[in-house]
């Protein structure tokens, strides 16, 4: 719980995973602050006592100069008394009004406020006083935000074959100093490492992986704000490399440069707010006087390139093995039954060694030692690190068959009466079938991540860059690669075209289809000042968009990163496979040795109960076949793929439907859910309340009434308060009406606000708030409240100078399909409960309309979390659906937290699943998808273990006494390969998942 709370606290400061929600959340934003405050702010402050003077102006000028030299400072305050979003908003506003504040973020759950400020203009003491002036206790704490030093590194790891390999790599990384957490995924062949960059560097992590015997390729270090690979065309020499490095390093924002002369590639890490790919290319070409040209490296998306390379290698290896294996198979299994060919193959070369045996020896040797070299190297590395894997079993099985055959053939060559029996076809065919299985497996595994590829394809390939003169006039346009867009570029978006980058509109108006990102089915109107998201489609009209978030900072890139991280996370059920794999390979080796020993000893007896063994059969050869078959068929490859492949496909499918599932843990918990707790506002309802009626109990002008109410509510972040302020604005003709000053503002979460407006004591809130404030509520007001509650409307009482003067009725429309969703959940045996801070009357009316019977109203944020815990203690698996900061404690407490995508950053960070479309029916889809996924996972274990449970006894020869049936080792190898392919293909069927048809998805 503490870790989760800290994660939520850090998300308020716009770090880590909160970057994704920064773009997705629809929350009010403050105007951007200038990088350096203006000196007049200080002058004004200094002149409070009696006007400004020449000395004040000089002091201000000196302070400004000092600020130019002084870096920003971070202060963290402990703030007591906050309990909801309104409190946090009040503190944030109060701090940001001070001069010299660059940014501020408030964590209501942790009771902290982090402020980024310039010490030349404001001090920590002034910030503390500003917080206390609005009614909260504040205390400066010396806490360094250590998460700034924690980075996430991603590595591609080559050579892993089963869960034993992943456990070896994971253990090596976890043991490395400075590594907090390491997760290795077999399905993606990637590792995600959370580490402290002050203690360990990314290249040291690569060495740690390579020491375990696997090859590691860096995907991202986490240290780079942006990273680009450029292809360099031209003749390299030491002089040009030196010129290139010095010229690029001189650019502002460049952090690191790596030149690979063999691949003609240069990798540059840079800060996108200071430079960009076009600047880098221009510098490279101008510094070398045109001798070298640069372009985006075609393998920038190296993962796909590596996959295709691996597919190609396995395909080539398999085809080469067939060239040698087919003749071996024909000479041992086919030609021996054709009279003419049989005589030729059985012709003796040296003593009892035949031509057929010699040919099979010659043909199988390249397969064993050249084509099968990777199994030797993999087995050697695994044994060196004490973690035997699939390669060990394959190497043992094939070597046993090959070297026994060599012994048998050589003995025949030096003997005049020994008849040899070789198993060359076993070793060569075994390797060929395993290579075929790996080839098919990689092909299938590649399809599990197609959802990410589709997400990345949303970004257009090209963009139209507008060229401006010094006065800001458009003088031309140029088509560029969309990957070359830099921060603050102005991009032209034509009707029907895709928006190439996150940004805001500076000219034009249109409608943009954002369904592929936000799920909003209707095109959204866009005009000057509105934000747009990269990858969305412009419906009509031309837009000029200024790029703000590019490259890895874009919303699309962060969604992709979140899905990738989710696919890396292991589901708890995978621990089952990990535990088995740790002991499986050694157990199989022991089992195969026992099988050989039993059959070898059995061959030495011809009486009961072993009389069914033909006396002519060599017991050693028979035992050898059975032992090799057991060793090969029991490889645990499929077991390691059972869970991760299903999780990968499910998270990808979820992302394509606007449901971001944060890993296997969330997916596994969701399928067990039997109780869902719904918040009301913004979850069951649209979340945009509107004023529908006003009843005055005293003679007064409606505009004056609303001026006082809006002045008090303007300081609150509560949705109902915003609805009242918006309604009050409509009563004034001017666009930016200034409300009267509200003094002594107090907000009581879940109840209302108090303030002094125009010398009147204004109290706005619910019935209990009025009674606790000593205000008598007349019968007429109570009757009006009862009427409004029956209509599912919220009645807000307004009192002035201890007397009730009016009631404002606010309605929040119920979301479409809300009743159908609750009904469908009931058919899934999932109980629905509504918990809201609203009054009982409104809550009951909403509950009746949507079909929820269990309702808890007038609940504070902590009470929501307590209710979740009560349900858990009663034995239920609880999901919480919410959208606000006040829902965050419950989202964290629940077994599964589902955040509505249009909610706050904190709620999204606290949740396990994010419903990007904000559609209530996606709750059903998320649970249904998780259930379907875990059905697939269970079936995968059936496939994986079924092959072993059924195959091992048959391979060990249980059918031989009765039917003389033997499972040849190469057939066992084919079965082992088929088990892995079948598991992956069974997971791939999830790609065709359809949401419940009831909702028309």
* Share of helix, binned: 40-55%
* Strand content range: 15-25%
**Helix-and-strand structural type:** alpha+beta
Return the average pLDDT rounded to an integer. Answer: 78
Q: What is the first-to-last residue Cα distance?
A: 36 Å
Q: Please, how many helices?
A: 35
Task: Strand order, main sheet: write it out.
Answer: 24-36-35-34-25-32-33
Membrane topology: Multi-pass membrane protein
Subcellular location: Membrane
GO cellular component, one term: membrane
InterPro entries: ATPase_P-typ_cyto_dom_N, ATPase_P-typ_P_site, ATPase_P-typ_TM_dom_sf, ATPase_P-typ_transduc_dom_A_sf, ATPase_P-type_domA, HAD-like_sf, HAD_sf, Heavy-metal-associated_CS
SSE blueprint:
Elements: H1 2-12, H2 18-24, H3 39-46, H4 54-69, E1 73-80, H5 85-96, E2 101-107, E3 112-117, H6 124-133, E4 137-141, E5 150-158, H7 163-174, E6 179-185, E7 190-196, H8 202-210, E8 215-220, E9 226-233, H9 238-249, E10 254-260, E11 265-270, H10 277-287, E12 293-296, H11 302-334, H12 339-345, E13 348-350, E14 353-354, H13 355-371, H14 373-384, H15 390-413, H16 424-447, H17 450-456, E15 462-468, E16 474-481, E17 490-493, E18 502-507, E19 510-513, E20 524-526, E21 531-532, E22 537-540, E23 543-549, H18 555-568, H19 574-602, H20 619-633, H21 637-656, E24 659-661, H22 664-670, E25 675-678, H23 680-684, E26 690-696, H24 702-713, H25 719-729, E27 742-748, E28 752-757, E29 760-765, H26 767-772, H27 779-790, E30 794-800, E31 803-811, H28 818-827, E32 831-835, H29 840-850, E33 854-856, H30 861-873, E34 878-882, H31 888-893, E35 896-900, H32 905-910, E36 913-915, H33 921-956, H34 960-963, H35 969-988
Parallel strand pairs: 25-32, 25-34, 32-33, 34-35, 35-36
Antiparallel strand pairs: 1-3, 1-4, 2-3, 5-7, 5-8, 6-7, 9-11, 9-12, 10-11, 13-14, 15-16, 15-17, 17-23, 18-21, 18-23, 19-20, 19-22, 24-36, 26-31, 27-28, 28-29, 29-30, 30-31
């Amino acid at each position: 719980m503490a870790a989760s709370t800290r994660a939520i606290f850090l998300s308020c400061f716009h770090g880590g995973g909160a970057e994704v929600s920064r773009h997705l959340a629809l929350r009010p934003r403050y105007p951007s602050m200038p990088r350096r405050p203006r000196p007049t702010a200080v002058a004004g402050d200094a002149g409070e006592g009696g006007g400004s003077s020449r000395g004040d102006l000089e002091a201000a000028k000196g302070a400004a100069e000092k600020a130019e030299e002084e870096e920003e400072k971070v202060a963290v305050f402990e703030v007591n008394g906050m309990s909801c979003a309104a409190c946090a908003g009040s503190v944030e506003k109060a701090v940001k009004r001070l001069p010299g504040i660059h940014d501020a973020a408030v964590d209501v759950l942790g009771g902290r406020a982090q402020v980024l400020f310039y010490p030349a203009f404001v001090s920590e003491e002034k910030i503390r006083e500003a917080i206390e002036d609005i009614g909260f206790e504040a205390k400066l704490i010396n806490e360094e935000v250590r998460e700034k030093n924690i980075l996430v590194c991603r590595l591609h790891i080559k050579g892993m074959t089963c869960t034993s390999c992943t456990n070896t790599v994971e253990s090596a990384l976890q043991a490395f100093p400075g590594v907090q957490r390491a997760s290795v995924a077999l399905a993606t062949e990637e590792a995600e490492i959370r580490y402290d960059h002050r203690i360990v560097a990314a290249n040291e992590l690569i060495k740690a992986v390579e020491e375990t015997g696997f090859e590691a390729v860096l995907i991202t270090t986490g240290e780079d704000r942006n990273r680009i690979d450029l292809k360099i065309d031209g003749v390299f020499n030491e002089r040009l490399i030196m010129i290139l490095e010095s010229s690029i390093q001189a650019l502002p924002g460049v952090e690191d440069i790596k030149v690979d002369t063999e691949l003609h590639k240069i990798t540059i890490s840079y800060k996108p707010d200071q430079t960009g790919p076009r600047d880098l290319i221009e510098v490279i070409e101008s510094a070398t006087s045109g001798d070298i040209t640069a372009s985006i490296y075609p393998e920038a998306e190296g993962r796909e390139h590596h996959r295709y390379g691996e597919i190609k290698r396995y395909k080539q290896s398999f085809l080469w093995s067939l060239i040698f294996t087919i003749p071996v198979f024909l000479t041992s299994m086919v030609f021996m039954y054709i009279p003419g060919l049989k005589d030729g193959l059985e012709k003796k070369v040296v003593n009892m060694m035949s031509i057929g045996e010699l040919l099979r020896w010659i043909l199988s040797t390249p397969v064993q030692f050249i084509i099968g070299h990777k199994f030797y190297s993999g087995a050697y590395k695994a044994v060196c690190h004490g973690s035997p894997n699939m390669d060990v079993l394959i190497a043992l099985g094939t070597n046993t068959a090959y070297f026994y055959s060599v012994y048998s053939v050589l003995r025949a060559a030096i003997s005049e009466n020994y008849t040899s029996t070789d198993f060359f076809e076993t070793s060569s065919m075994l390797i060929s079938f395993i290579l075929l299985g790996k080839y098919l497996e990689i092909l299938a595994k590649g399809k599990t991540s197609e959802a990410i590829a589709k997400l990345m394809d949303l970004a257009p390939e090209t963009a139209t860059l507008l060229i401006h003169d010094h006065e800001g006039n458009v003088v031309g346009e140029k088509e560029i690669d969309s990957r070359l867009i830099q921060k603050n570029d102005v991009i032209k978006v034509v009707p029907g075209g895709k928006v190439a980058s996150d940004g805001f509109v500076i000219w034009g108006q249109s409608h943009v289809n954002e369904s592929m990102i936000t799920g909003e089915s209707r095109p959204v109107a866009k005009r000057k000042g509105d934000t747009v998201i990269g990858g969305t489609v412009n419906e009509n009209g031309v837009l000029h968009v200024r790029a703000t978030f590019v490259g890895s900072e874009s919303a699309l890139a962060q969604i992709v990163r979140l899905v990738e991280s989710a696919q890396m996370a292991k589901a708890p059920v995978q621990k089952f496979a990990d535990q088995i794999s740790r002991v499986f390979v050694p157990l199989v080796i022991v089992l195969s040795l026992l099988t050989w020993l039993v059959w070898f000893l059995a061959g030495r007896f011809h009486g009961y109960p072993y009389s069914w063994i033909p006396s002519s059969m060599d017991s050693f050869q028979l035992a050898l076949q059975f032992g090799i078959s057991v060793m090969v068929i029991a490889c645990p490859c499929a077991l390691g793929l059972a869970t991760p492949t299903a999780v990968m496909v499910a998270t990808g499918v979820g992302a394509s439907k606007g449901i971001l599932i944060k890993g296997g843990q969330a997916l596994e918990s969701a399928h067990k859910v039997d109780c869902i707790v719904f918040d009301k506002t913004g979850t069951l309802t649209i979340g945009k309340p509107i004023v529908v009626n006003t009843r005055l109990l005293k003679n007064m002008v409606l505009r004056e009434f609303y001026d006082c109410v809006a002045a008090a509510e303007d300081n609150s972040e509560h949705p109902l308060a915003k609805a009242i302020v918006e309604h009050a604005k409509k009563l004034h003709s001017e666009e930016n009406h200034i409300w009267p000053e509200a003094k002594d503002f107090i907000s009581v979460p879940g109840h209302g606000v108090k303030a002094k407006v125009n010398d009147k004591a204004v109290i706005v809130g619910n019935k209990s708030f009025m009674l606790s404030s000593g205000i008598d509520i007349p019968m007429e007001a109570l009757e009006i409240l009862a009427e409004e509650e029956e209509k599912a409307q919220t009645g807000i009482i307004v009192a002035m100078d201890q007397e009730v003067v009016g009631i404002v009725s606010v309605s929040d429309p119920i979301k479409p399909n809300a009743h159908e969703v609750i009904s469908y959940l009931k058919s899934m045996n999932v109980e629905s409960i509504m918990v809201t801070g609203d009054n009982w009357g409104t809550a009951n009316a909403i509950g009746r309309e949507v079909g929820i019977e269990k309702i808890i109203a007038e609940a504070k944020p902590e009470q929501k979390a307590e209710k979740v815990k009560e349900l858990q203690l009663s034995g239920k698996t609880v999901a919480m659906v919410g959208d606000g900061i006040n829902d965050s404690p419950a989202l964290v407490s629940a077994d599964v937290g589902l955040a509505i995508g249009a909610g706050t950053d904190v709620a999204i960070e606290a949740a396990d699943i994010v419903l990007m479309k904000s559609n209530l029916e996606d709750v059903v889809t998320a649970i249904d998808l998780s259930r379907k996924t875990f059905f697939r996972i269970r079936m995968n274990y059936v496939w994986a273990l079924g092959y072993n449970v059924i195959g091992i006894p048959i391979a060990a020869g249980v059918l031989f006494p009765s039917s003389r049936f033997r499972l040849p080792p190469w057939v066992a190898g084919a079965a082992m390969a088929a088990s892995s392919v079948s598991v992956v293909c069974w997971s791939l069927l999830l790609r065709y998942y359809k949401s419940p048809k009831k909702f028309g998805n």
